[in-house]
Every structure is written in structure tokens, then in C-alpha cells.
Amino acid sequence: MELDRSRKIRSVSADTNVLLDVPNYYSLKARESSLTPEERDMLKRCGSSLEVLIMCLTEDVKIKRVGLRVVEKELARDLSMLRLYRSVFPPSIKPPQQVKKLAKLYMRTGIPSADALILALASYLKTDVLFSWNREDIVKKSVQESVEEINRKQRVGTPSFITPSDFLSRIFLSNDKSICLSPSPIPQIYRLRFFHSK
Question: Where are the alpha helices (DSSP H) in 69-140?
Fold first, then answer.
């Protein structure tokens, strides 16, 4: 195990696809016995999203909002989720100039504009992890490396871009009881597991 290169998790942020999994989980769970194989995969994905968000809330890991209007537009597809988002987080703000500058640098590497803004704000807010299921534009080794290179030159920290299920396979508790993220999967016996009540 490469625990010497692990990083403590103090704050996280979540892409809208992770947040929208919360109401989807309960919708799918209610009809679990009649789900198609694709819906069963979706239920598993939604369960991972719900688990990491609840774990972060209960373990006092700060969940920082991405805080962009583009996020609220995506969440508007589920009005209950949008109301919950607005009750938990303050109103969206206009992205600071430094965030716009970072986003433009990211876009030069081929990252779409909305995703570039989300990545730039997560970096600007100094989050340790950004959860996303967007494997094409966010959770991708080349994107992680491009953002790290740009952020290093700009002297900005870079979050780990990771899916909730990958996060669950790589977290463990350190000796001081902090949640840490390993650079590679942790054997099952050492993994931190959280079981939310049904």
C-alpha cells in the first residue's frame, strides 16, 4: 500500500451528477424488486454517492458547494433537490476573476467551459476532493494531470477528481482518526466503511 502518499480529507465538493443521485437513490430503492440490470447499476452508483455525502457530513468533512449558476440549472431538474441545495448552501456567486482565469487555462486543454469552471472553483476553494461521475471531462487521468500542471504554475492546490465508488475503495482512517485518501485502492479489511440507516 502507498499510504505514505495519502492525503487527509478536510473538505470535498460534488458535481451535480453526484448530488442528483440522492433523490434518484430513493426513487430506485422504492422499486428495487422490479429494476432492470441498468437500473440496478444506477442504484449501486446512487448508493455510493449517498454514502460518501453522508459519511462526509457525519465525519465533519466540510462539503463545499461548487456555487455556480450552471449547477443550479442542472439541479432544477429535481425541484426538491434544488430546494435542499439552496437551504444547505448560500446563494450562488459570480465566479471571482481568479476562477475565470483558471477556467480559461483549463479550456485551452480541451476541458468544456462548464466543467472548467467547476474544476477551477473547486481548486480555488481548496477542496481536497471533487466527486463526479463525469468520466469523459472530469474524472480522467489526463484532466487531473492537466489541471495539476496548470495549478502548480498558478500556485493553486488541486483536488483529487474521483468517483464516489473509487473514493470508497481508497479511503482509510489515519492514526489520528482523520479520513485519508490513498493513491491506490486499499485492501477491503482496511477500508473505512459507513453504513447509513435504512
Answer: 69-75, 79-88, 97-107, 113-124
3-184 in CATH: which number? 3.40.50.1010
Distances (CA, A) of 51 to 21, 108, 169, 176, 178: 11, 35, 12, 22, 17
Domain boundaries in the chain?
A: 3-184
C-alpha cell at 154: 498558478
Confidence (pTM)? 0.83
Q: What is the dihedral of CA 145, 150, 152, 153, to 10 degrees?
A: 150
Copy the grid coordinates of residue 172.
482509510
**Sequence letter at residue 32:** E
Q: For 169-180, what is each residue's pLDDT tens digit?
A: 998 887 777 888
